[in-house]
Design goal:
single chain, 240 residues, alpha/beta, Rossmann fold, seven-stranded mixed β-sheet, 7 strands, 37% helix, globular
Length: 240
């Protein structure tokens, strides 16, 4: 019948086929969506699995269309929240090692429980801000961030965590010219390429969505990371 949403399980099977996921991925995603729905702590505003299958799962998985994401082996997900895209990528890429970085304790507690319930041996959870995570410096071939901060701020958080040749992926909508200019300026300062927008369509009616991809082509200056909070308080900006 037209206008009746398809069951979540059917939608997840479609996504598994679309992105070539492991055989048990659809079931893991269904469990994850149920865990998000049942979690009493405030971890996300989208809890209903019927919405989350698109707004969380499909939106995370669509980045697998990019080679740098599909082939990553050591991933750091910044501000992991309810686990998207970090847990989603861990399910989709079982050979990759995924670190979920989150500064809010109630969220890291959920992430640890979820990773355990899903049997994800390739996941580590770290309670810290990106600027203070010394153990992650230069240790990743991919850094991801979804709905976290302005583009230039995300680049500053992520650049020190990347190894040479690594990539940073930021999920964004259509950006205003000022944010694009600031992002480009930050990238050049941090040893990254200017972020390139890749248009994505995670689900029907998703609107204008992009994954901005930047590669590490030079060492990040030793003055980064700056102390906690400075990236937001005094962001790197384009000259005016």
């Amino acid at each position: 019948m037209r206008g009746v949403p398809r069951p979540v399980s059917d939608r997840l099977r479609d996504l598994s086929v679309r992105f070539g996921l492991p055989d048990d991925a659809a079931g893991q995603f269904e469990t994850l969506l149920d865990l998000v729905a049942a979690e009493p702590a405030s971890i996300t505003s989208v809890r209903d699995p019927r919405r989350g299958v698109d707004l969380h799962v499909a939106d995370s998985l669509v980045a697998l269309e990019l080679h740098a994401i599909r082939t990553a082996m050591r991933i750091a997900d910044l501000g992991s929240g309810a686990g998207f895209p970090g847990l989603a990528l861990a399910i989709a890429l079982p050979e990759a090692r995924v670190t979920l970085l989150e500064s809010v304790g109630r969220k890291t507690a959920f992430l640890e429980r979820a990773a355990g319930a899903l049997g994800l041996d390739n996941v580590a959870v770290v309670t810290a801000r990106a600027e203070s995570w010394s153990g992650g410096l230069g240790a990743h071939d991919l850094v991801t961030a979804r709905a976290l901060a302005p583009l230039g701020v995300v680049l500053e958080y992520g650049a020190p965590l990347l190894e040479p040749g690594g990539a940073l992926a930021s999920w964004k909508g259509r950006l205003e010219p000022d944010e694009l200019a600031d992002g480009a300026a930050a990238a050049l300062t941090l040893g990254l390429t200017v972020p390139e927008p890749h248009a994505v369509a995670p689900f029907a009616g998703s609107g204008k969505r992009y994954v901005y991809l930047s590669s590490k082509v030079r060492p990040t200056p030793a003055t980064f990371p700056r102390r906690e909070g400075m990236a937001r308080k005094r962001p790197l900006r384009a000259s005016t």
